[in-house]
Design brief:
Lipocalin; Collagenase (Catalytic Domain); 6-stranded mixed sheet; 18 strands; globular
Length: about 350
């Protein structure tokens, strides 16, 4: 079978434990083939009563096994899943995916310690694992940034070099970013924010958020604000995460600190954009061990958007900016992919859990 089964599946079914017409919606993420598969199945559950949709829980099964059981059917099985909030009612999962016709269907079987089984059906919806709406505004005088091509600075053209934008970098990680249209029927474009002084401060940025971020909400939502500005009060500040009500809602990037003209400046500008958006999704710096986690990754030796080129350290002979840019393939690490694709919903969604506790 040549079709890729990885991606997002969705299904809605009635809750058999309740007499009311409450339904359960499942968002199922299958990650077993395609680009950089992690062999993980994860998902989120929502309760739907009347017209109210409420998040209930998340689950994740790592190191799942994929077995072809028929010409047009694949079985993906996992054991001892992790749940948020914690639960031990169901421990194992089996997902039988049929590719006989479009859309692909996934028959999800939950299995508890007594061998009891609950079945749910989901349909394939997207090749992406998550979808985010990006609202982008720029300060007057900022040059719109579209993409950077690593081949511009490679002494020898590498097979992996390709033009990269913010949208394509996250698409490669399995995250769909859709630019929001500012006017009905218009091509997506940033709103121009008139210059409000020689530099931005935290106070000015906080005042700009509710004024310009039209999708601002204090509830968890897949809505992200990106603000491209000229200068911050600290001259070397290239960018940082923006908070509202203590919640991650977006980020700002400062053009005069990153530069925007030469290939080297464009490279750094792209890096800062993706680095800061990564923080918005609750990704820590590559050298930070997530709280409550034993996964430290490669630390300062990580070739990732979430490292600093200047602090890269693999060995005494391989360290610093030059070594980093020579080896970096403009992608996230496997641990970062695990978070982006399969983190529990409240640990990644904009406006979700506190930045310090859920990396």
């Amino acid at each position: 079978m040549n079709q890729k089964i990885s991606g997002l599946y969705k299904g809605v079914f009635f809750d058999p434990s309740e007499r009311k017409s409450r339904r359960i919606e499942m968002e199922l993420r299958v990650d077993v083939d395609g680009k950089r598969p992690l062999n993980v199945v994860s998902g989120d559950l929502y309760s739907i009563l009347n017209k109210t949709r409420r998040y209930v829980s998340s689950f994740r099964f790592e190191e799942v096994e994929k077995v072809k059981i028929a010409r047009n059917e694949v079985l993906v099985a996992g054991k001892l899943g992790k749940f948020d909030p914690e639960s031990n009612y169901f421990s194992d999962i089996k997902v039988a995916i049929s590719t006989h016709s479009l859309p692909f269907t996934a028959n999800v079987q939950w299995i508890n310690s007594l061998g009891e089984i609950a079945n749910h059906l989901c349909n394939h919806k997207s090749k992406y694992f998550r979808s985010v709406h990006l609202e982008h505004d720029i300060e007057e005088g900022v040059v719109p940034f579209e993409y950077y091509n690593p081949a511009e600075l490679l002494s020898e053209s590498a097979s992996w070099a390709r033009p990269i934008s913010v949208v394509s970098a996250f698409a490669e990680a399995g995250i769909e970013i859709t630019l929001v249209k500012k006017k009905r029927g218009a091509i997506p474009h940033p709103e121009i924010i008139l210059q409000e002084g020689s530099f931005w401060t935290g106070t000015k940025l906080n005042a700009a958020i509710p004024k310009h971020f039209r999708s601002l909400s204090y509830k968890p939502r897949w809505k992200l604000w990106l603000f491209s500005a000229l200068n911050y009060a600290i001259p070397n500040a290239k960018g940082f995460v923006l908070f509202c009500g203590g919640k991650r809602i977006g980020c700002a990037v400062f053009q005069n600190a990153t530069g925007w003209q030469s290939a080297i400046e464009k490279r750094m500008r792209l890096f800062v954009y993706i680095h800061e958006i990564g923080h918005c999704f609750n990704l820590p710096h590559a050298w930070v061990v997530p709280e409550g986690s034993s996964l430290a990754g490669d630390g300062y030796a990580t070739l990732s958007w979430m490292n600093y080129p200047s602090t890269y350290y693999a060995s005494e002979a391989c360290r610093g900016r030059d070594a980093f840019w020579k080896l970096f393939r403009f992608q996230f690490s496997d641990l970062e992919l695990l978070h982006l694709r399969h983190a529990f919903r409240n640990d990644i969604i904009l406006g979700g859990r506190n930045f310090k506790k859920s990396h």
